[in-house]
Amino acid sequence: MNPIRINLLPHRQIRKARKQRLFAILAVAALGAGLALVALGQAYLVEAKAAQERRNTFLREEIAKLDQQIAEIAQLKEKTNDLLARKQAVESLQSNRDEAVRLFDVLARQLPEGMYLKSVKQSGDMVALSGFAQSSARVSSFMRALAQTELFDEPTLVEVKAAMVGTLRVNEFAMNVKISKQAAATEANTPPGHKGAKP
Question: Domain 113-189 carries which CATH code?
Answer without folding.
Answer: 3.30.70.2830
